[in-house]
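User:
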Amino acid sequence: MRHWLALIRAPYVGPATFYTLLDRFSAPEAVFAASRRALADAGLRPATIEYLQHPDWERVEADMSWLAQPRVQALMLGDADYPPLLREIADPPPVLFVMGDVEVLQQKQLAMVGSRNPTPAGRETAFEFARYLAANGLVISSGMALGVDAASHEGAIAAEGLTIAVAGTGLDRVYPARHRELAHRIAENGALVSEFPPGTPPAAGHFPRRNRIISGLSMGVLVVEAALRSGSLITARLALEQGREVFAVPGSIHNPQARGCNALIRQGAKLVETAADIFEELGGFAAKSGLETVTPTEVTDFKLDPDYQKVLKSVGFEPTPVDIVVERSGLTTDSVCSMLLVLELQGLIATTSSGHYCQTC
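Assistant: Predicted structure:
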């Protein structure tokens, strides 16, 4: 294992180069024993050759010490516990670091991804779908990012189901830092995984690599709210390249956070309205009996007078600015602002990160 850990730390050695070296030299040990000439003939850069001639064994020993902790291990590609679906992709991680229950990686998974700044309705949709799907036997995989990712993990945990978070850092770090407590709960109710060794900080180039693992682990990917330029669409594209199913929750044409999902549906993604739609498409996966569907919560115990009803109807399910609510309702700005506050306190609407309002039910 030491030589595998040393080789993944070599500069400019990603999965493709790693496997090229294995094909050429048969084993990581042979790579480190090769001459400079042989390494140069393999097309390696000078910085890579220098590292291979003088590996950082001290850092490798630190990795080995970190792996000695309970519920922490590294899976190499040929190991029996290596996730079978992930092994099938074009560029599987040579080493996969795992914190938590390694057996969960063998179970059937659905990836859930979406906006880091979802509408309240989008966040609730992700939570509810994850809760129902996890309760009916699917492991929910995501990237532990803000927004839809976090809501998906939390929904699975709320159902006492299993969830997997794929990190774009070493597993000794939590990114974003505010999800430290969530990371602990995921490790207790599933697993954290990463192809990056301990100590690896977040970097922009790490997250597309992380996304291919999210989709590669799973039978399919469900996208819940995504703008047209979104990392979630990268995950969906990777899923298609890997032969996985792609699902999308449709949204209002006026909601910029729904345009990515709507585009995916136009391109052939499965339109999803209920959890049953996902199980139907996956086929052959036996969900638990009594599968529930995800439907909006109905509010029946709060009666609104006509002006409040007018304001509520003026707020769409897409983010709606106050001035649009004023225009639609025909009421004064002061009256609308006061009623919006009351409607928010009653849970009928919610504010978005942009300060707009949208209906929650």
